[in-house]
Amino acid sequence: MPNIIEKRHYRTIIIGGGQAGLATAYHLSRLHEEYILLDSNARIGNSWRTRWDSLRLFTPSQHDGLPGLPFPAVRNTFPTKDEIADYLEKYVKEFSLPVMQGIQVSRLAKSPEGFEISTTTGNLKSDRVVVATGTNQQPRIPAFARELDQKIHQIHSSQYKNPKALPDGNTLVVGAGTSGVEIVVELSASRHTYIAGRLTPHIPDAIFRYAGEPYWWFASNILTVGTPIGRKVKPKLLTGGAPLIRISGKDLDKAEVERVSRVTGVKDGLPLLQDGRVLPVSSIVWATGYKPDFSWIEMNVTDESGWPVSKRGVCESTEGLYFVGMLFQFGLTSGLVGGVGRDAKFVAEHIHKTRK
User: Using CA atoms, how far apart are residues 245 and 263, in angstroms rounded to an integer?
Assistant: First the structure.
């Protein structure tokens, strides 16, 4: 059951109870700002708990903490999805953050008083709004997937749990980023597997083991929109996917995963490859990433890519509207648990400085 919201107007409303929303809440609390955070999940961290069983974070534990609370794990270990979910839940309790759970937001619009937010518990009003709904909004699956034989079991990587959830037989994983590679290696133990797509660049384990701090500093401070190299990297990251961490092409070869060319369409109900080959598969996992969906915001705030236009999260077209947790919002680490705090602090301080 959702929490009961005691009043209908707030100075600031944060939408989204993941790491971006919680980091923003922390900084607003430190500035003694009045706010409320709305989360659609019945329990903090559920967006992590519902992901595939063996998932671990792609960054080491020392870089997985939110502001004010280091992640409780041995250095250079990679937390499980449930460990990060429990950490987020602990974070709320540690700082007594005012989170309202189980509340769905369906609409955000301008109003004479500031903003109006339509929710499953009624309409709310606020002077400012922080949208912290994350980067994994709408699964990206090619339109031709609808033409595949209905006997082929299809899921997006966000729906994948474990190999037992897929039917026996050959499985194709489309997408060769970290998620796709980890999933296909796991599946290869119980079936013949294919992976389609070009592997993203691999960051060797030795970098984290022997040069983890310098690398994190470089990713946080040099790969940003404030540097020429950062501005060059940003579009490649947004379209090409994150680099491989903890896993590489060698793991594919060891697991005897068959690498194939890009999937371009359908022939006779089966996936058609760029080289003309047709794959006989019983299931497909689309590890093809996500696309933004801000259609519920009734304001012109996005560009042709679908992402909001903002300067470090401050909306340029609508005063009082903010975004936190977007891919490369300021730098490469903006979308990561351990990197979102910097953007959250910037937004919270902007709210505090411009308060009327």
Answer: 24
